[in-house]
Amino acid sequence: MCRHDAAAGPEPRTEEARTGEPPPMTCAQKLQWDGWQRRLRRHEAVMEQHRQGVPIKQICRNLAISRTLVRRWVRGAVPELHRPRMDSLKSHREFLERRWAEGCHNAARLWRELREMGWRGSQRVVAEWAARQRLTTPTPPTRHPATTPFAMPSVRRTARLLTGDLEKLVPTERRFAEQLVATSPEIAKARDLALRFAAMVRERAADQVDPWLAEAKDSELGSFALGIEQDAAAVRAALSLPWSSGQVEGQITKLKLVKRQAYGRAKLDLLRARLLGAA
């Protein structure tokens, strides 16, 4: 693997560089910078004890540092920010900067182009170079218009949207329903049949049952139409006759309520007495 230039973080030249905030860095450079700061603090601790006359052996014990490192620092060595590394991109720097100026900011693409030119380095080298370029030449953020997130509704919710009044829906749901109807003729036909059936029940139009069934059999409501056809006489009677089973259903509901109030421990005579007494 080719070793790349860590020319990453800036070389410290003043005391301000040691204590101030570092410039924008990549993750690798940030780790390198933090390690260098730790070495500087240990170096300062070593030099402070050396100025106080503490022997080298005792400094090693106090700070848990090897004697070789303490001797090197006492003799004038200073922790370096990074070790010099070979710059494998040096001969291709002009090409990379030109492609970057042309708008190619994709590290993988730049790496593939370099490979075609005969370069044998890894993609990580180019990726780190591109990361440093983005830090030095940041691109302005792209402003996107604020949009309300829209979650895809369930099948039941979609059916509810299609059979309701589109004008009463929120804008995102209305656009979804309109696009769904415009995209699928089958869904549009099913929606029309469902709305017509609801209007037929509200208006008690028994004469429209047969035409509706004939049209609905070949649609997405075919199974529903088949069930209506099997009980067509009852449906026509419900739409044409004035009588209703609502009173009977109400009494049955009341009977079940009274029975459940006894928690299953009451006999039929007590149940009869409670119902007749309430009547």
Structure write-up:
It is a single chain. The chain has 279 residues and is an all-alpha fold. It has three domains: 87 residues, no CATH class; 86 residues, no CATH class; 32 residues, no CATH class. It is built from 15 helices and no strands. Helix 6 crosses helix 7, helix 9 crosses helix 10 and helix 10 runs antiparallel to helix 11. The longest helix is centred in the first third of the chain and has 25 residues. The protein starts with 14 loop residues before the first helix and ends with a helix. The N terminus is likely disordered.
Specify the overall morphology. Answer: elongated
Strands, count = 0
What gap, in angstroms, lies between the N and C termini? 95 Å
Question: How much of the polypeptide forms β-strand, as a percent range?
Answer: under 5%
So how many helices?
Answer: 15
Q: Mind telling me the C-alpha Rg?
A: 41 Å
Low-confidence stretches: 1-19
Helix-residue proportion: 55-70%
- Structural category: mainly alpha
Order of helices and strands: HHHHHHHHHHHHHHH
The overall pLDDT average reads 79
Number of domains: 3
Outline the biggest β-sheet: none
Set down the secondary structure blueprint.
Layout: H1 15-19, H2 27-51, H3 56-63, H4 67-74, H5 93-101, H6 107-116, H7 123-136, H8 155-163, H9 171-183, H10 185-203, H11 209-216, H12 222-230, H13 232-240, H14 246-261, H15 268-278
Helix pairs in contact: 6-7, 9-10, 10-11
Features:
279 residues; 15 helices; elongated
Explain briefly what this protein structure is.
The chain has helices spanning 15-19, 27-51, 56-63, 67-74, 93-101, 107-116, 123-136, 155-163, 171-183, 185-203, 209-216, 222-230, 232-240, 246-261, 268-278.
